[in-house]
Amino acid sequence: MSRPNAEPLSSLEDATRYLDGLINRERSSDYAYARLDLRPIEALLEAIGHPHERLSVVHVAGSKGKGSTCLFTEAILGALGERVGTFTSPHLESWIERFRIAGREVDATRLVAAVERVRPAVDVLRAGPPETQPSFFDVTTAIAFLLFAEAGVDRAVIEVGLGGRLDSTNVVRPAVTCITSIELEHTDKLGSTEAAIAGEKAGILKSGVPAVLGRLGAEAEAVIRRRAAEVGAPVCALGEAFEVRGAVASPGTIGQSFRFESGDGDAFDVSLPLLGEAAVANAGLAIACVRALEAYSPDRVRAAAARGLARAVLPGRIEILSNDPAVLIDAAHTERSARVLARALASLAPDGSVLLFSISSDKNVEGVLAALLPSATRIWLTRSDRQRSVDPAHLAERVRHHRPGLPIDIVDDPVAAARRGRHWGPASAWSWSARSIWRGPRGGRSERRVPKMKRPSWLLARSCEGRGSQPGREKGGPLLEDAPYLDWDRAIAVPSRGENTLSDF
Prior knowledge:
With 505 residues, this protein is α/β, with parallel strands linked by helices. It is built from 15 helices and 17 strands.
């Protein structure tokens, strides 16, 4: 607890050290979901003046696609002229990434000031009973609400952290809610069936608030529709109230186009500078969320979707970092998303992939391996997080079960694994920098040509949030040198055979 005469937080490093002292459930899996509670966030928000009550919120939950849908929604609303605050989690490199205003990360000075503003209230609660002691996510959620309220944003796009019903973000009175997908994930916390998980995510639905739904399994959809009927939330479902059709790769570029069709007869074409069928579905959900606000005419939404989505950037979602040969990063961590990634890799690298792989113990390991291994030519197994990642030796057993005879290399340390991968094969390698992995705040990307795949091979891994993340780390340094500060449980693909010089290592 900070004393009345405690030194004020004056730098991002100070703020980081302070937040690191809080309960962080993102870095630990040994807690019971049933013990989560909204009382800590409610007490904290009351102490700082209920900033969330001043926000018009689009609230997005889902097993996969919720972060992408948030960023797509931000892009469309921004093209409509709105000043948008966006809160997403977890982060790739720095926790600053969680807080965006007008399409850019909040600057460090403003963020440090916000942490300092909430610190007295946090310290009072930390000294009180356990049931109201705020966690890291409680505090960062409160900081997001405070930042957005003080910035006077026109709209806040808020991503649910875990589940929905007991998530810290579920204190808002949203203008629109969205549930993107339901899959088996966090089964130790949310339940072992899609129906149970759907019940938790349906907890964000509110009376009279439109609920936009992605494509759901029959069991999950039934649960969510039942909850929507109970609370009186009108449903706007993909495949019923609107549809996305005809995703077509854009010739000669990294991207695709699709057609959005609404139930009221509105239809228009949209281009995305992104790969993967999931991007198309999530872009359609974002368009539906903006339409559900009923703040703009269909003509204005149509024009804004065309402008905003054409410039959209999704870090870590089938993101190609460099070309010839290609360097790709993706965040696949469920069986379904791993299959989507596998299909994208098959189209880009038909001759196979080299995988660098780490996965958290609460993921569907068997399903992800079953999806990614068929096209693998070699796999490097590592461990990004001592607490959360599956032991590489155990992973090796599962790999042998799925793909007997596949060459396996076990390197426990992710930095060493990357360096070993660099030297594997003939004299050729790859290079990238940390700046490459997160370009969202820096605006749109230039058109990029489809990479030549004469000798395609890839390095894959998966990531959520690294327990050693350095929120204040300067971007631009060697990415893999900083691997302990990234979450290597996220899918990364890098060519292990190429013609570039590995100068960054």
